[in-house]
Write a structure and sequence with these properties.
The chain is about 25% helix and about 30% strand. The chain is globular, with a radius of gyration of 12 Å. It is of the alpha+beta class and about 80 residues long. The chain has one domain. It has helices spanning about 5-15, 20-30, and strands spanning about 5, 30-35, 40-45, 50-55, 60-65, 70. It is built from two helices and six strands.
C-alpha cells in the first residue's frame, strides 16, 4: 500500500517537529498496532511516536506519547 500525507498530518508534523522519514519508519516497523477500527483506521506505534493511517493509505495524524499520555507541547524537545 502506498502511503500519503493528509493536510492535517502536515500541520501536526510541523507543530510536533516530526519528519516524514520518522513517520515512514513507524509505519514500516511498528512495535504495537491498534485496530483497525470501524472506519478502517489503525494506529501504529514505535517508541514515543504513534501514527494513524486509514485503509487507503492516508496518514491522518502523528501523536507523541510522553509519560503515559499523548502530549503536543513537549514534542519539539524530544530526543530522536
Amino acid at each position: 500500500m502506498e502511503i500519503y500525507p493528509t493536510p492535517h498530518l502536515l500541520d501536526k508534523m510541523a507543530a510536533r517537529d516530526v519528519t516524514w522519514g520518522e513517520i515512514v519508519k513507524v509505519i514500516e516497523r511498528p512495535e504495537v498496532v491498534f485496530g483497525p477500527d470501524y472506519r478502517g483506521r489503525k494506529t501504529v506505534q514505535r517508541g514515543e511516536l504513534a501514527v494513524v493511517v486509514d485503509s487507503q493509505g492516508a496518514v491522518i495524524t502523528v501523536l507523541l506519547k510522553q509519560n503515559e499520555q499523548w502530549n503536543d507541547e513537549q514534542a519539539r524537545s524530544r530526543k530522536r
